[in-house]
From TrEMBL:
Pfam families: VIT1. This is VIT family protein. Keywords: Membrane, Transmembrane, Transmembrane helix. The lineage of its organism: Bacteria, Bacillati, Actinomycetota, Actinomycetes, Micrococcales. InterPro entries: Ccc1_fam. The chain crosses the membrane at residues 157-179, 185-204, 216-236.
Amino acid sequence: MSDAPRPGEHPDELHRPSTGSRLNRLRAGVLGANDGIVSTAGVVVGVAATSTSVPVIATAGGAALLAGALSMAAGEYVSVSTQRDTEKALLATERRELAEMPDAELDELAGIYEAKGLTPDLARQVAVQLTERDPLAAHADAELHIDPDELTSPWEAALASVVSFTVGGLLPLAAILLAPAGVRIPLTFVAVVLALVLTGWGSARLGEAPTRRATVRTVLGGAVAMGVTYAIGSLLDVNV
C-alpha cells in the first residue's frame, strides 16, 4: 500500500494509510521502552540499596528484564488482539447491514454527513458517491472510525514492545553493573534520567506532539519510581 498523500493532504501530514499501524507500533514501543527503563531501574536500584554484591544485583536485574519483556509482549498481544477482534466484529455487522438494508444504510450515511454540517442535498450526494465506490469503507470510516485495510496488528505491538522493553531495560542494568560500587546508584539514576529524557522527547517527535510535556511526564514518573524503590530497599537494611 502506497504512503503517498491522499488528495488534499500535505506531504508531511500523518494522515496516510499506514497511520494506524505506525501509531500502534509507536505506542507499544514507547510504552515498552519506558517500562523497561523504569521497572528494571527500580529493581536494580532497590536491590543495590540492600546489597553490594554484583551477582545478586545482576540476577535480580536480569530476572526483572526477562520477566518484564515477556509480560509486556504477552500483554500487548492479548490487548491488541481483543481490539482487533472487536474491529472485525463491527465490520462484520456493517457488512451484514449493507447487504440486508442498503437503502437504510445509505440514509444513515447521508445523515452522518448532514450532522457534520453539509446541506441535505450535498450530504446525499457524498453518501451516494462514497457508497458507489466502496460502501464498507465509507461506513467504517464515518460510523466506526476504522480503516478495514489497516486493522491494528497484535504481532507488531508485541514485537515492538518486547524489543523496546529489552533495549530500555539493558541501560540501567548495564549502568549499575559497570559503575564503581561507591557511585553505583547515583550514576544509574543519572543514566536512567537521561534515557527517559531521550524516550520522552523521541516519542513526542515521532508522534509530532509537543516535546516538553512528554519529556517532563516521562522523567518525573521514572524518578518517582526509582526513588520509592530505593527508599524501600534502604528501609529493609539488609546487606547480602
